[in-house]
Amino acid sequence: IQVAWMAPTGGYKLNSDGCSRGNPEISGGGGVVRDREGKLIFGYSCFFGSLTSLHAELRAMLFGVRLCVAQGLHGLHIESDSLSLVRILQGSQSCPWRLQQEMSELINYKPYFTEITHCYREANKPADCLANMGADSEQERVFTSLSALPCNVQGELALERVGFPNFRRRWGR
After folding, report:
1. What is the pLDDT of residue 169?
2. Considering only CA atoms, which of 12, 5, 7, 22 is closest in space to residue 112?
C-alpha cells in the first residue's frame, strides 16, 4: 500500500511519535511541525526515561503541542501513528489512569486543534527518527531550521514535501 504524508489544508500540522525500547523501558519522543506547503516550522527530540510506548506517544504529542501554543501556532492538525492515542483523544477509547493527568493537560489544548488523525508509521518517518534520537541521546532538543536537523530527517522531509510515497506491506491473507 502506498502511504504518503499529506499537508494540512490550512494552519499547521504536528506529526509526533514516541518510542519505548521495552514496555516500559528507555523512551523518547519527537515530532515535526510544518505549514500547508510542507515547510518546516520546527522539529523536536526528547528523552523521557523509562515509560511505556503509549505514555511516550502522549508525552511526545504534549511536548509538541506546548511548543506550538507557546509560539502562537493555532489551527493545528495533529497526526500520530499511535491509533490508541488518537482514539483516546477522539473519545472512542478510555485512557489508562496513569496517563490521566497528562491527557487532561493535552485535552485542555483542544481549542488549538482543528483535527486529530491517525497515520501509518510509514507516513511518520521524520517524527520516528527524532523520537529514536531522543531515546538514544538522553537530551531534549528543538530544531528551528531544516539545516539543524539530522541528515536522515532532512532527507525524509524532502521526500515527503515532494509527495514521494513510502510503502506499507500487508502480511497474511
Report:
1. 86
2. 12
Query: How far, in Å, CA of 73 to CA of 31, rounded?
Result: 15
In one-letter notation, the amino acid at residue 53 is S
* The three grid cell numbers given for residue 90, joined into one nine-digit string: 477522539
| Averaged pLDDT score across all residues of the chain | 95
Around 5, how many Cα atoms within 13 Å sit in the side-chain half-sphere? Answer: 35
| CB-count burial class (<10 Å; 0-12, 13-18, 19+) for 10 | exposed
Strands 2-3, 166-167: pairing kind:
antiparallel
For 103-119, write each residue's pLDDT tens digit. Answer: 999 999 999 999 999 99
Beta bridge partners of 31: 16, 44
Question: What residues does 46 pair with on adjacent strands?
Answer: 29
pLDDT at 55 over 60: yes
Write a three-state SS string for the chain: CEECCCCCCCCEEEEEEEEECCCCEEEEEEEEEEECCCCEEEEEEEEEEEECHHHHHHHHHHHHHHHHHHCCCCCEEEEECCHHHHHHHHCCCCCCHHHHHHHHHHHHCHHHEEEEEECCHHHCHHHHHHHHHHHHHCCCEEECCHHHCCHHHHHHHHHHHCCCCEECCCCCC
